[in-house]
Design goal:
This protein is of the alpha+beta class. It has 5 helices and 5 strands, in the order ααββαββαβα. 45% of the residues lie in helices and 22% in strands.
Length: 181
Amino acid sequence: MAIDRRWLALMAAGFAVVLLLGQLPRLAERTAERRDAAAAVFTPQRVEKLTDDRLVDAFIALPLEPRLSRVAWDHNILSVDLTYSTGAGSVRDVWADSAELVRLAFVRLTNVQELLIRVFSESDGRKTLLFAADTRAGDWSSLEITELQPSADGSAPDWSDKLHSVWTSAGERWRRNFANS
């Protein structure tokens, strides 16, 4: 009788192992679903229309992070402040960032009518305005936007007049410093 109990226990354990092995695929699916659900919380959404609660999603993919200091959205006007610390950034970076912002505002987003850009230099916690630009969606054709490229030498690119940009006296000095280096 003792042998029968051992065989019965062994068969029950084997049956339990078979049942557990059969559940492994479902367990893997559940784990993947939980992981995907958790990752979805942190995955930026594609933004086509800008709203106050989607500003971060619109800017998360842009390569402006170290320089992006302020973003405001008000009545179809997007305002962006970029800050370059002393010794970092160049005039070419200003044009490259401006091109990136124009592409975002007038290609990826459908409801931006005007883009305001300000560029600051920061030294010892103090900001100095270098550059300001104001451009509207109607100033650009889709072909012009797709061909936006900063000039290799940092001089104003062909499309810079569409930005209606103004360099401050501090900005002019900053530009000359790069031209001399």
